Amino acid sequence: MTKFARARFWRDRRTTVLALMGLLAVLISFGAQSLKDLNQWHEQQLRVLRDGTWFTLQAQAHFSRLMVDLDRYAEGDPTVTHDALMLQFEVFWSRVDVFSFEQAAVVFLGENGVQDFVRSSLAVLRRTEPGLQALHAGDAVAAATIRRQLDDVGSALSTLSLTINAKQVNSLQTNDARSAALFRRVSFGMAATAATGVILVLMLLSAMRQQQRHLKTALAAERQVSTAKADLHAVIDSLPAIISARDQAGRYLFVNRSFAQFFGVSQTATIGSAYPPQGMLAPPTGADMPSGGHGGYHEVEVTAHDGKKRTMLMTDVPLRDAGPNPDRTVRIALDITERKEAENRIRFLAECDVLTGVPNRAFLLDHLDKLLRQRPQPLLSLTIVDLDDFKAVNEMLGHSAGDALLVALALRLGEGEGNHMICRLGGDEFAILSQGVRSDRAAMAQAEALQLRLHQPFIINDNVVHISASLGLAMTHRESSTTADLLRNAAIALASAKSKGRGRIASFTASLAAQHTHRKRLEADLHGALANGTELRLEYQPKFELSMRQLTGFETLLRWDHPQLGPISPSVFVPIAEEIGLIGRLGSWVITEAARQIAEWEGRGLASWLKFAVNLSAAQFIHGDIVSSTIGILRTAGVRPDRLSIEITESILMRDVVRASDALKRFREHGIGVSIDDFGTGFSSLSYLVQFPFDELKIDRHFVRTMLHSPAARAVVRSVIDLARSLEATVVAEGIENERQLIALHDMGCRLGQGFFLSEPLRPAAAALLMEGCRALAVAS
Amino acid sequence: MNRRLFLGLGAYAASGTSDMVETARIQEEIPGHLVIRGAIDAALGGETIYELPRLQQLPSVSFKTITPWTTGAHTFKGVNLKTLMAAVGARGSIVRATALNDYAITIDLSDSAASLAIVAYEEDGQPIRVRDKGPLWILFPFSDHPELLTDRVEGWSIWQLDAIEVLAP
User: Fold this and answer.
1) Cβ-contact A604, A769 below 8 angstroms
2) Tens of pLDDT along A23-72?
3) Chain B CA closest to residue A68
4) Do the Cβ atoms of A91 and B130 come within 8 Å?
5) DSSP characters for A29-45?
6) What are the CA-CA distances from residue A729 to residues A557, A559, A688, A724, A749 (Å)?
7) Residue A625 — φ and ψ, nearest 5°?
């Protein structure tokens, strides 16, 4: 090519560039505009939704405050003066009046709806005013009339709140569709911008190379190249996207102005260097480079030079001159942080509790975060309220009644005094956030008052419903509380309240925290113990025939030797395993280990006439097919099913009678014996009990221990023995501790027993010795 | 209107007093009194109360304006907020204003918009009733300065103004 040809080439090229630039400018502005539209639209939605929720909440809160003051004044409470009462009235008036100017109200109710609400509510207030003006402290009768009148405003507010909530959900659904359409446009815009960017950068790189290669060529040609390059630079710099190109070694060939601004670096200094190397915007290099096409769009979080986290929509386009491996990568990223935030925000508002019209969990978290960031940190107390046995209400009265109860409950929770916010955490769990509670004692007093209110019956669909609830409360302390702390502490307190029974209140304390930590540790360690298998082992509690003291079988007992804490009782770790969903694995471990041990002893000619019992827990029994899994384990170990028996407690049977009865039948069909453990403690119902097929009843150790002193215990033992006999089951006494107990049991007709007096639980080696002794005895006799 | 929510949160956060304390406070500070406390002239002992007559003694400012919370234009009269802050010898430029309805907002006096703020005590020549957002209302000449109709300045327009705390600089 001659110098002049080259110059013409670039002149022609420049025309192409300009034409392309025109087209690209359209595409780019389309993409950028879509993004801007979406952001603005989201913000607007956000505002309306937020306001819709809040202004009704505020008005409702003030309404309840006015009512509380009215009641106190009517009771002659000296802390509420007439002036103070009138002031609350005035403030509430202004809260109603302001609805006329709330855009959200108009959006949700329509112009007429809002005006109707304001007009009728103000009419009530106007009617009430003279009576309130003339009200004397302690005049409960007149106050009651006023209260009735004002109640109309209160219920109008509740209706309003429910309407807004319902409409929010509808409008959110509509909005989602619109949002999706807009987002498609944005994606298209992004794709257009990306394609544009890549073409431009390609041209620019090519122009740069041309310029270098032909530095010594005719001045005119060089100038043409330079101008083309400057034009391209200008266009790429004006793009709202962050654009960079890197070579295989990770050096920047090009970065645009947005890139430099974002990372706080200079464009000229960055080109040729590998900085900024950290940051997720650094494109992949070498082997990381995508091998073909472009890798699609990703949302990534990137830290800008000011340390702020931004969300970017990003794509990489590998470029190659020759050969299969890309040698350059162009990366294009758009900052979509605002849209992300708006989206997140809308999502969280969408979860606002529709049923009860109170804020939801997300709202509470957000709100707590804001409060706890303040310095000085406000004094807060958080109470979690959990209904005891809400399931029963649903089952007895139906789900719509259950819902009605939750709505009524939310209202009742809101009736208390003081500055608080009610929130539905989910299901039948509510939270009450109170401010300005100065001491644990005050918080406890509030919780007790709340408990009393909850004990008042609810009228749900003409049914009188009594409920009880467990309350867990926690307070902020020493400026160091976080939202997570407060919620966790309240949840710990709630768990403690629930563990004590129904209708209890527990306050979070350091010792509860310690218990909780201990418990968390056990949970984690239990996982570990199951994984390594070395900390768990079985012991064997021998069962004897009482008259001849002959060995008849063993009950296997699970033991956990914690490497640091020493032996942990099954009564501690089995319930934990049930709660954290480990019981299935733990149960399988026990059966597997027992089967392995039985097989080993059988191989040594021991124990072939003895039965081994394993305990099954409720969770194991109810979830999954325990019968098939047990048979499977025995088959794998090569142990006959009739060597095994299972022990279950009465209470397990009562949880799901049909299922339990079915499982027991199947166990017995396989020859696995069924033994009912701790019999007498649950003492449910004989008619229930006879539905279950079983071979053995075990008398609870409590009755055995007290039978010599307590006629009642003795009566229980006797009736269990009689019952077993009439049902043709054997009976085993547990926990025999001395000879007198043994003799008494024998005299009452109990044939079998176990306990320390006969033998303590044995490790496998000792159990083997006992079996060998018995065999010798059997052979000898 | 946007301010309601925003402020709702703020108000909730700010009202960290028990009901009893709250009631007592309302009794002490009956409407028409503005309590100013915090980083103010040491001679005032950390807190001073402005009753209506005392406010009226300060130079007054009037303007006619529309607001997002009223119908039509009204004439408001009051004292310029910065004048008032100068009168109490405020040492900081960040103030926290709280209202009878528990609304609270932080205002940056060094912002140019804040120099236009008044603590209004009269609307169309009459004292303002609590139900009409009185007796004291921080307001801006929105009609003369439409650029002030932003979320931030609307948020500063606290009605039923009850107390101002000057935060230490």
Assistant:
1) no
2) 666 655 555 555 556 556 555 655 565 565 566 666 766 776 787 778 77
3) B19
4) yes
5) HHHHHHHHHHHHHHHHH
6) 23, 29, 16, 5, 13
7) -100, 90
d(CA A131, CA A150): 11
Q: Sheet holding A505-507: strands in order across? A: A420-426, A429-435, A380-387, A469-475, A505-507
Q: Do A104 and B1 touch (CB under 8 A)?
A: yes
Instruction: Report the distance separating Cα A198 and Cα A135, nearest Å.
Output: 78
Q: Which chain B residues have a beta carbon less than 8 Å from that of A367?
A: 9, 12
Backbone angles phi, psi at A667, to 5 degrees: -55, -45
Pick from A84, A371, A418: CB nearest B18: A418
Q: How far is B102 from chain A (nearest CA, A)?
A: 10
Using the beta-carbon criterion (under 8 Å), do B5 and A378 form an inter-chain contact? no
Q: Choose, out of B2, B3, B5, the residue to mutate when testing the contact with A (most A CBs < 10 Å).
A: B5
Q: Tens digits of per-residue pLDDT, A414-472?
A: 776 666 788 888 888 999 988 777 788 888 888 898 888 888 888 887 788 888 899 99
CA–CA distance, A763 with A758 (Å, rounded to integer): 15
Using alpha carbons, select from A23, A14, A102, A15 the residue that is nearest to residue A57: A102
A52 token code pair = 């819709």
Per-residue pLDDT, A292: 41
How far apart are the C-alpha atoms of A274 and A262, rounded to whole Å?
Answer: 16
Q: How far apart are CA B92 and CA B94, in angstroms?
A: 6
Q: With contacts defined as CB-CB under 8 Å, which chain A residues touch B154?
A: none
Tokens for A498?
């629930």
Among A94, A358, A373, A374, most B C-beta atoms within 10 A, so best to mutate, is A94
What domains lie within chain B, and their CATH numbers? 2-166 (3.90.420.10)
Identify the band that residue A339 occupies on the pLDDT scale cut at 50, 70 and 90: low
Alpha-carbon torsion A254, A259, A260, A265, what sign? negative
Given a contact cutoff of 8 angstroms between Cβ atoms, the answer to whether A357 and A408 are in contact is no
A561: closest CA among A570, A553, A571, A574?
A: A570
List the structure tokens of B73. Answer: 């234009």
What rounded mean pLDDT belongs to chain A?
78
Amino acid at A157: L
Look up residue A239 and give its DSSP letter: S
Domains and CATH numbers, chain A: 3-188 (no CATH), 243-350 (3.30.450.20), 356-508 (3.30.70.270), 521-775 (3.20.20.450)
Q: Could you tell me the CA-to-CA distances from A436 to A418, A443, A472, A599 in Å, in that order? A: 8, 10, 18, 67
Q: Which residue from A58, A94, A101 is facing B1, i.e. has the nearest CB?
A: A101
Contact call for residues A380 and A476 (beta carbons, < 8 A): yes
Bridge partners, residue A612, by sequence: A554, A644
Q: Residue A754's pLDDT band (boundaries 50, 70, 90)?
A: very high
Which of A277-291, A535-549, A658-672 bottoms out in mean pLDDT, i.e. has the lowest?
Answer: A277-291
- By the 8 A CB rule, do A475 and A443 touch? yes
Closest by Cα among B67, B87, B64 to B77: B64
